[in-house]
């Protein structure tokens, strides 16, 4: 399995490429803050990009696939069988009252 490239590897590669560029006589041009790389007179990029250049291709119908889809559409929907869950008796909290109807305490009771 090939080892994935880490961020440290990418940084090191970029550093080496930058040093090689500078050693070969290249210069880094400093651009002041706030200046854009886009000319203000240019139209927005989304207006320049054409998405659907090629003409629409003719479609080839596949009759057996269409017939199978239509047959399934005509059938009444099948309901999934409901699973019966076996419910184990769960403990339930019950309040014990005194003779005057005042609550005394709460106890847990298993229901059958």
Compute the separation of the termini in Å. Answer: 58 Å
**Share of helix among residues?**
25-40%
Give unreliable regions as ranges. none
The total count of strands amounts to: 2
Q: Which strand order spans the largest sheet, edge to edge or round the barrel?
A: 1-2
Structural class: alpha+beta
Instruction: Give the integer mean of the pLDDT values.
Output: 84
Total of DSSP H or I helical runs spanning 4+ residues: 3
**Biggest sheet details:** 2 strands, antiparallel
Q: Give the percentage of residues in beta strands.
A: 5-15%
Radius of gyration: 37 Å
H/E element order: HHHEE
List the topology elements.
Elements: H1 7-23, H2 45-48, H3 63-74, E1 91-97, E2 103-110
Antiparallel strand pairs: 1-2
């Amino acid at each position: 399995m090939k080892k994935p490239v880490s961020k440290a590897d990418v940084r090191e590669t970029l550093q080496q490429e930058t040093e090689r560029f500078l050693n070969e006589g290249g210069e880094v041009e400093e651009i002041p803050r706030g200046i854009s790389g886009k000319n203000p007179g240019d139209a927005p990029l989304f207006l320049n990009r054409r998405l659907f250049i090629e003409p629409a291709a003719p479609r080839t119908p596949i009759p057996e696939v269409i017939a199978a889809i239509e047959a399934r559409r005509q059938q009444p929907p099948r309901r999934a069988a409901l699973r019966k869950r076996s419910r184990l008796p769960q403990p339930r909290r019950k309040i014990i009252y005194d003779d005057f109807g005042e609550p005394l305490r709460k106890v847990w009771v298993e229901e059958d």
